[in-house]
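Lab notebook, page 48
Experiment: co-folding of the full assembly
Goal: obtain a model of how the components sit together before planning crosslinking
Operator: M.T.
Materials (sequences as entered):
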Amino acid sequence: MNTTSSRPGTKPARYGMAVDLDRCTGCGACMIACAVENNVAPAGPDATPRTGITWMRVYQISNGAPFPDSRAAFVPILCQQCGKDTPCAAVCPQEAVEVDPATGIVDQMPQRCLGCRYCMTACPYHARYFNWWDPRWPPGMEKTLNPDVAPRMRGVVEKCNFCHGRLHAARDRAAAAGRRELLPGEYVPACVEACPAGAMVFGDLDDAASEVARLARDGHSFRILERLGTEPKIYYRTARPWVRQAATQQRKETANA
Amino acid sequence: MGFTRRDLLRFSGGSAAGLLLTPVPWTLLHDTAVLTENWPGVPRPRHGEIATRYTTCTLCAAGCGVRARCVEGQPVSLAGVAGHPGSRGALCPAGLAGHHLTFCRGRATEPLAKGKPVGIDHALASVSAAIAECGSGESVAILDARPGRAASLVYRRFLAGLPKAVHCAPPDAQPYGGFGIDLENTRAILSFGARVLDGWLSPGRVLANRSCFQLIQAEAAYSRTASLADVWVPLPPGGEETFAAAVARALQGDDADAQAAHVARILLHNQPAIAIGGGAAAARINQILGSVGRPGGFLPRRDFMPATNIAALPDHSIRVLLIEEPAANDSLPWDVVARKLAQNPMVVALTPWLDGCAQHADYVIPAPVYLESLDEAPTPEGCTVAGFSLSPALLPTPPKLMAPAEFILRLAHDPSAYSEILKQRVAAIKKEARGTIFTYADAKSTRVADFASADDLWKAMLGGAAWFDDPIRSSRTESLPRAGWSNPPAVPSPEYPLVLISADSPPPHGSPLMSKLYRESGLRRSAIAAAVHPETGRAHGLADGGRAIVKIPGDSFTAQVIFDAAVMPGVIQSAGRASSPASIRRA
Amino acid sequence: MLSHIVFLGLFYSVLAVVSATVGLSLFRAVQDFRARRTEAICWQATFPDLPARGRVCRHELTGEFRHRTCDKAFDCRECQTHAALAARHPPGPGEPDIFGLNFPLDRFYHRGHAWAHPEPDGTVTVGLDALGARLVADPEATELPAVGAHIQTNGAAWHVRKRGADVRVLSPLDGEVVATGGSQHGWYLKVQPDGGRFDARHLLRGAEIRPWIARETERLQSALDPTSQALTMADGGVLMDDLATGHPEADWDAVCSEMFLQP
Amino acid sequence: MPDVDTQRMPRGVRRSSPRQFLLWILPWCALLAFGLYGAGLCLVKGLNQTNMDNRFAFGLWIFLDLTVIALGAGAFFTGFLLYIFKKNELKAVINSAVVIGFICYSGAVAALLVDVGQPLRFWFTFWHPNVHSMLTEVTFCISCYLTVLFIEYIPILLKNRKMRQVPSFLVFEFELHKLMPVLAGVGTFLSFFHQGSLGGLYGVLRARPFAFREGFAIWPSTFFLFILSAAAAGPAFILLTTWLVSKISRKPLVRPEVLPLLGRISGILLLAYILLKAIDTLVWINSTSPARGFAAHQFYAWKPFGAWILFVEIVAFGLLPALILLRRRLRQSTPWLVSAAGLVCLGIATNRFVLTIQTLALPTLPFDRFLTYLPSWQETATFLAVAAYGVLVYSLSFRYLTLFPQEKDLSC
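Observation: model returned without errors.
Model output:
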């Protein structure tokens, strides 16, 4: 059942992330690092904001006040790695989605995906993306593909997996060094590494000593759509009340697109 | 007896049943599975020897250290260099995607004369001829994208040999002249439209200190910085001077309007404080705050190589202009440049791109992009000490491409290669024996003096290293340059009832991946998006999301209208455009 | 894991049931072939498709029931009801002339308009009754079984083709064809009944014939002209010798399918 | 000269002339061809041909599948009543019901094959199924039931005038027919399951508060509601089609008492369904949805899907037709009967629409927007192709097979 990632010998962990919304300036470095790391193809000319693939996507939110009192904040949304009744894993008809008990990472297996997109309807964070097109790179640019990650074919679903390739690499390094467990910071997803504001912290939520666990406990921390009860593992943190409100409370207004 | 339909039925039925017993259907299934797994057209990433190499980013003036992960020599991902004193281990989005530039469309691949391919020698010849023909009162100018480099020295040396020549820089280059900003100790920043949180100085350094300073953003545009600043002072377009004066009065205890007073209070309570951007306005306030030459303020450094602000040149004075393509997010307002050109001028663009200044050029000399050739990064913008680092090439230089410095050397009939010039620069550093070398690979700092020879230093720097000078205690008293250029305030008129102002820079020229991500996430509005306050929009008969035609004196463009209640009424916010009066109507 | 077993078990057993059903019916079909039950089964399968009016019980004709639809596919040999009624009051003698049609009383009549006449030599002569003969008078083609062929009650005895209508005449008995005649002889087949004896319980005789023919003429009438409801012949109108030429407008295929119990 | 066409039609029934028939099917063939072209584009070029996207991951096709399968439920439910409950009056429509069922299911399956991103992997679900997924249940049941329907279709096919001349066919038909109750039973079982799991499909989306429902065991309430609603819609749809066909072919097909009977069955089930649906909705508004941090009224705050849609679904297209169908007098009058049946079908369609489309249109992230989606022409064409396919198969079946045994009796 379990994928290769849960090997005997490696100490189980529950990887999670803490994002400081007060530090994020919405520069988008995380998105680019993510796409570079995971071999996301540049979209074709007719791709739209809703058909493109952005495992990591930064949303701009506003306090809704008009000029001159407007304020903005940026919320990076990636797969929230739900830990309980993971919505997407439950619905996949052919076990193309697996929650790795050794890491808590929700993994998508494109080579088994049928492309029914049921998981996408199940995901409340819209963190799953479908390959509407054949992946195409400008001539020569496929040379820049990351060898640790296989590009996905058309017609399958994909999403953030906390840079699985990096986890494997880190494990191999640790094994080579004869260690059973990874050192803190030895395994970090590309987005966290790339954030120039240091707004993202990654680590083992079960390790009480870890920075991420500390931030998760922080009074300013919250999770998005927490009440759905799916135990997401991405924590957001802000000292600005309006940001927290905008990110957690359903809007009342009836206006729409 | 003949072969009846019934026999046919029997036969087909039988064979169908029989087929199921053969392995055929099962192999077929298996093969389809295999097919879908190696879907035709999906490239396989190259596997091979993986190496880490180091270089320095030259895409902007920040000069961040770069760690490149290479497969068989080909960079597959870039990252910052931990502990880098200038960049604090950070890279901006453009820097992260720098290794894609090579594959971008719209590159200049061979010398062009009026759009037609020509040999490089022919280009050289005709440029020299044009220079020779320069009449009296007409000058030859090189627009140096980033003065203070070894390349700049090459330019100066070449220009020195000419009767009338000028080494100039884009209007917003060298905003702080020979000063750096002691950001680490600054407690408050009053910014007149500087993109403090959006690419100012080196992002890593700014964001690392963000929690330590109060940010007051004074500008008309609801820019990213404005939207995130601690205080946003929405000035009417061109209102910097007035507001600065008010703040100045408030700082000196005279009465001023509430907003200015509030800002002044913040500045006074969060010392040391500085003001940036906004030309004279900022300079005045800095003077009052005494922020020049003290910790937490502007600190002078060595190696300042002043270049003339092109905006300051007399009009119609340039006969031959050689332009070095400025970095993606520095704007080169062409109208400012055009004003300076004499009749039938010759404009030579030394650029990797066809869509930048090449559009206005008679000759295009294709330049390699970042990572394609050995390059240099001068003192990072706003750094309090002089600095220098090499940007070793990680990719082969494509044929027919020529670094701007190389071209000027050829033009000057100077046999030495650009690399030698760089080597001399390094040698000079070794000779002066000041400062430290930060080597990227081991994140160690070594005194320059401790290097055995200039060659060792050269080797070290080729392997990825940055030199930083020692701080100086100077008694330089000259005040700050009037940073940037404040073009005349755009005043609305009956014909142009609105004001077009630039918000953030548009998605930078570069990686197709980056442009895709920005487009899809809507993080950066494209240059053709025009944001207006809903009321303003309705008043001009616009519809949210609709298309509109924006007219400005002497130009017009179609834009996609975005209603944004955060935008100041009466203005049109569009990315990367010079401020100007404008009118808008539904397309 | 358990859920796997339950779920897959459930659905693969469903598949098993389905395929078993199909397999079983195929198997049975083959069995029927072996046992030469084909003809009988064809009739069994055909009978329910006959219009209700074509399936009335002979005892409804004679008025013993107001309404009764035959549930034995006209094989009264297996019908207790018939046995009982026939025992109580066997049909009296009728008269041969019915609406000017001749129905000799020494013959037994099948609902499909074939008659059977036992000969002294133990064989049985089979022919078309007066009504049937008029329906397919001088046919385009007649296809008789080869001598030695075996025919079954309610199976096809022989085929006649008339004005585009393919008619198969139902056999009144089981037996082996010993000689073949044709319309010109007045009889079609001579049959050696199985087991030597001729069982005529399922055939109409004597007084049963008249009400039956009365009903048949009604059906014929409605088949010839679905619009009219008038029963012109029941009250003594005489049928012409060749109905087909007499009713050029009628859909002869439909008429024959109605009268020869051929859906 | 007897023409080949009539030689293939059932005896004793009148059908339109070949010319007329040709004129009737030609447009449908054209539509089918056009639709197949659209579907082909989606298969060859990929789903970028549709207007679906990462946010509207399901679109027109899923709506089509759910609706069509609900309407096709008549096949199983009629069979169920006929073979298991021995409601012999339904013999009059069972053939037609089977054909309709077959059309609906095969059409739905075809649409699904176009809908998935990697159609070549359709069999993966059988290879490594995730038995906890409702979609797995659906896939298994539907594929099984389609087989059953096909087998149920065979006898009707073999009873064709030409076919039946082959004795072996007739014998097989006869033997198969004897076992039909078994198949009906299996079919019923399967149908109950997949109709249910189609409901479960959305009911289990715990992270989509608009669709999520509490339930019993592994099944959310929508599971049971779908079974009931499908059982109610099936007969209504058969009623509708039968009436339509006899209108188009201008002849009585079933005895006058049959349609009201269908209506009555539908009415009873519908009433039961509506009551349960109302209860379910109340529970959802007052407990399920708030418990997950969503006040139900928010869902209806987004135009155009106001609370009116709830009213339309439950009252106008639910309660109303149910009451009509339950009143004998109204049932006896064809206009009432037919329009009520029409309303029932509309109600089912609305219900499926709300579940499939509205669920996806509504935002879940607090800072997200309401989404709109319009199918592309390729999607619509594929949709129409299924419809055209249905009409064609039914027309041919009606012309050459005996779909309404009583027709012959009634024709004289």
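Interpretation: The longest strand of chain A covers residues 15-20.
Next step: discuss with group before ordering constructs.
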